Amino acid sequence: MKPLAFLWIFLLSGNLWAQILHSKDAIVDKQARNAFRKAEKYIDSLQAKQDIPGISICVGNREKILWAQGFGYADLENGVGVTTQSRFRIGSVSKALTSLAMAKLYQQGKLDLDVSIQRYTSAFPEKKYPVTARQLATHTAGIRHYRGTDPINYPKRYAKVADGLMIFKDDSLLFKPGTAFNYSSYGYNLLSAVIEGASKTDFITYMKQEVFVPLGMKNTIADYSDSIVVNRVRFYEHADKKLVNAPMVDNSYKWAGGGLLSTPSDLVTMATKVLNGQFLDKETVDMLFTSQKLFDGKDTQYGMGWRMGTDPKGRRVIHHGGVVEGGRTFVLVYPDQGIFLAIAANMSGVSINLKEGEAIASYFLE
């Protein structure tokens, strides 16, 4: 073959390869646009159907954030729209973040998950049976959940984690630890006292320095009711079929169990880095995301700060939701497919659960 002929074929093949690459990119871009449009339409319908003032959503994969967008209003009275920087109450999704602090201390050898918690805190009295950090993190410790008589329905500031334990610390355990599952926000409040003892740092400071900053969670903080918090949304609920302001609350009694503010973008960033092994060792990550078993072998479908399950197509999912005054947040992870989703709303009583999360994720799994 003559040199010029070879060069011509080489150039043609190069142009053809460039066209193929461009064609693939175009297909991917088209699929992404279709996913965005379907997701936007779904969120619009969800918001209209439930009369939700504001929603924020973020979807990512193992490499990057694919889509983040705000819908509606962060503040109805002042006409302030939701942005990707708007901070929402995340409720019990706070437990997932608390579990990361516990896991980091465990990995560093500063926290033994299987010894009595009195090694780390004297703020909780000994009970009939010893309680461990592992049992607190997996809701198998026998610590009770909320009661209607608890002093949490009015704005009271608990200056220290130990002060918040006063609500339940003198109550008996519901069962022998390890023999049953009982979801308990108070159990996570107690876990934060253990974290303070193991780290020798107050809980919120430790979370900021050792969890939020390393994970790049720039918009995640405690929900201080008496402070000016930039980009914090207003909180709403429905009363007599009308949208009204949610009651004033102070979540200082439950920072670890449900008292943090965050954004869906921060939550997706967190989940991505954790699953990518950028925060904890693989063995520690596997521990967090392994469903725990009771002493009798029964599976709890709960790891440490995360729920385990499968979607209707049998794909493995990791998730957690948060219900709080004036807010609803949900985080969903498809670990095998590498899809991460978080959604938040600034209204009580919102129905955004696993079903809705899977519906939105399905557009990106396609």
Automatic annotation (TrEMBL):
Residues annotated as domain Beta-lactamase-related: 40-348
Enzyme Commission (EC) number: 3.1.1.103
Gene Ontology terms, MF aspect: peptidase activity
Annotated keywords: Hydrolase
GO BP terms in the entry: proteolysis; regulation of lipid metabolic process
Entry keyword annotation includes Chloroplast: no
Major enzyme class: hydrolase
Protein name: Serine hydrolase domain-containing protein
Source species: Xanthocytophaga agilis
